Amino acid sequence: MVAADPVDIELRLLVEAIYLRYSQDFRDYSPASLKRRVLHAQQQLDYPNISAIQERILRDPMAFAQLMQFITVPVSDMFRDPAYFLALRHHVVPVLRTYPSFKIWIAGCSTGEEVYSLAILLREEGLLSRALVYATDINPASLERARQGIFPLERMRSYTANYHKAGGLASFSDYYTAAYSGALFDRTLVANVTFADHSLSTDSVFSETQFISCRNVMIYFNKKLQERAVGLFHESLSHRGFLGLGAKETLDFSVWTPRFEAVSRPDRLYRKL
Ligand SMILES: C[S@@+](CC[C@H](N)C(=O)[O-])C[C@H]1O[C@@H](n2cnc3c(N)ncnc32)[C@H](O)[C@@H]1O
């Protein structure tokens, strides 16, 4: 029998310790990328090895919060993959328009860029006041930043370009003011948004929704957890509800494949059958 790599053993023990101590379940994340991120945290936070991280986080919630910043990948962009947002305008908006009110779930919203992008799109389509949006994540620090809606000013140039490629109809700078050395987004955009802690690994279904956007989240999960997450989405979606995924994610090769149709495969946009 080949002995397991000590680093892999340490990683498993760390993940187990996180689960037992904080009820955050990373046990079904893709091991290669989790390992990469934990090793990066070890280096950046100056721990001698992964066991030292485990020992520290067991007794120090602040150290765990710091580690979460590395293992949850709090990275996002506004109008990320503009073609996705264009596809929402073409395929999803006309259907949402037929409802007097509707619910949207943005799962794994990170620091909120996706939420503000979608809110801008809905406002331009005259639908924002009809929407109730749940924006969820497991990282409390990211959710807090999402609530604040302040993004780096230096990103505005590329976000403006994305916005126009995504079919943006106005001047992007109308949506923010320069404040606190960042771009503070119009608070009314998130008046109907509830930011909430929710884990696709351990929590149950989230309300009944007409559209779910879960982008660049399942890419970090193993097959079993991906199936769990899509199961939650299937259960949450109303009849003929839409599901949007990230550019590197797909519903192909899933037990759920027969339960959805592809609306636009290149844009990773699906509809419940
Ligand atoms: C790379 S960001 C994606 C942000 C945004 N959706 C986008 O596409 O720009 C991944 C997010 O997924 C969240 N996440 C990771 N595991 C999760 C889980 N089990 N349940 C909910 N969110 C999770 C992370 O905290 C992180 O904010």
Give a description of the structure:
The structure is a single chain. This protein is an alpha/beta fold and 273 residues long. The protein has nine helices and ten strands. A seven-stranded mixed sheet has the order 6-2-1-7-8-10-9. A three-stranded antiparallel sheet has the order 3-5-4. Helix 1 (6-22) packs parallel to helix 3 (50-59) and helix 3 crosses helix 4 (61-71). The chain starts with 5 loop residues before the first helix and ends with a strand. The mean pLDDT is 96. The structure holds S-adenosylmethionine. S-adenosylmethionine binds next to helix 6. S-adenosylmethionine binds at residues 72-77, 80, 107-110, 113-114, 137-139, 142, 199-201, 215-217, 246.
Descriptors for this entry?
273 residues; alpha/beta; 7-stranded mixed sheet; 3-stranded antiparallel sheet; 9 helices; 10 strands; 41% helix; binds S-adenosylmethionine
Summed up:
The chain has 273 residues and is of the alpha/beta class. The chain has helices at 6-22, 31-44, 50-59, 61-71, 82-96, 113-124, 140-148, 156-165, 223-236, and strands at residues 102-107, 131-137, 150-152, 176-179, 182-185, 193-197, 209-214, 237-245, 260-264, 269-272. It is globular and about 60 Å long.
Percent range of helical residues = 40-55%
Q: Estimate the strand proportion.
A: 15-25%
Bound molecules: S-adenosylmethionine
Structural class: alpha/beta
Cα Rg = 19 Å
Main beta sheet strand tally, sense and closure: 7 strands, mixed
Total DSSP E strands:
10
| SSE run | HHHHHEHEHEHEEEEHEEE
Q: What is the mean predicted local confidence, pLDDT?
A: 96
- Strands of the biggest beta sheet: in what spatial order? 6-2-1-7-8-10-9
Terminal CA distance: 47 Å
Q: How many helix segments?
A: 9
Poorly predicted runs of 5 or more residues: none
Shape assignment: globular
